[in-house]
Specification:
Distance between the termini: 23 Å
Strand order of the largest sheet: 1-6-7
Shape: globular
Radius of gyration: 21 Å
Number of domains: 1
Largest sheet: 3 strands, parallel
Number of helices: 13
Structural class: mainly alpha
Helix content: 40-55%
Strand content: 5-15%
Length: 279
């Protein structure tokens, strides 16, 4: 996710002195960026120090610490506290109805919150960009949380004269009807259906063009390969070896990446540079 990528880049990866960095953005990163906002710690000058899961709103969270150090506390959190939280959101009747229908509570909550559009929608639904109710206008305020961290990454790399590009990392349910077949159902998506990517893709493209960030989009390469190959694991949605191959092959022939690579080579050789623009 951009927030943690920024901190890792700033505190660890710059030591490797890269010539070029590509940030592959997974649209579910919106949820993580939203979640970790409350765990951020700042110094007295307002400088971001780190994201610490044991702190919440700048204060040490004893319960969070206990969950990670006590099996009993973790069990109570998983089986009792989270269940109570779900009942509060859905209501007892709604929760029981969901269970009787064999639906996962998180899918019902995601559907409810997508309709309500609360300010913290990504925390409830990591796939809200692919709901039928999603529009560019309604999703843009949520996207800007991640976008601000992408800009921090870009500016940090610019300070160190490192080239930067952004990549759209597709999810199985927008690649093909049989990709990530099992896991999608837990979130209320249908098997045998490929979902629309236009809202998520438009937001990222629009942002990249406005901020002059070179943009890589392998979606069509994935869709073509996905007709005959399994590119995502059914349960967790991560890339299979075939999926990693498709991504690598796309990058190696993507004109935007090749232009960035040529610029990096010229820069290393001290030749006149042409910095790629987003397309």
């Amino acid at each position: 996710m951009p927030m943690l990528h920024y901190l890792s880049l700033r505190d660890e990866f710059l030591a490797f002195d890269p010539d070029l960095v590509i940030l592959w953005y997974d649209q579910t990163d919106l949820q993580e960026d939203s979640w970790f906002q409350k765990n951020l710690l700042y110094d007295e000058h307002g400088r971001l120090i780190r994201a610490d899961p044991y702190f919440r709103g700048g204060r040490f969270d004893h319960w969070e610490w206990l969950k990670n150090h006590s099996a009993i506390a973790k069990y109570l959190d998983t089986k009792l506290i989270r269940t109570v939280s779900k009942i509060r959101i859905l209501g007892l009747r709604g929760y029981l109805k969901t269970k009787l229908q064999g639906e996962r509570a998180k899918a019902a909550i995601a559907r409810l919150k997508a309709a309500q559009k609360p300010s913290d929608l990504p925390e409830y639904d990591r796939f809200f960009l692919y709901r039928e109710s999603a529009t560019e206008e309604s999703a843009r305020p949520y996207w800007m949380v991640s976008a601000n961290y992408v800009l921090l990454i870009r500016d940090l790399l610019a300070e160190h004269h490192i080239l930067f590009g952004g990549g759209f990392c597709p999810l199985g349910m927008i690649v093909g009807p049989d990709q990530w077949a099992t896991g999608r159902v837990a979130w209320g998506f249908e098997r045998g259906r490929a979902y629309d990517a236009s809202v998520a893709l438009s937001l990222y493209q629009e942002f990249s063009e406005a901020e002059h960030i070179p943009f890589l989009n392998p979606l069509e390469s994935f869709r073509a390969a996905g007709k005959t190959e399994k590119l995502f694991y059914d349960i967790d949605g991560h890339l299979t070896p075939a999926g990693h191959r498709v991504l690598a092959e796309h990058v190696l022939r993507d004109p935007t990446f090749l232009t960035l690579l040529q610029t990096a080579i010229r820069r290393a050789a001290g030749e006149p540079q042409h910095v790629a623009q987003s397309r």
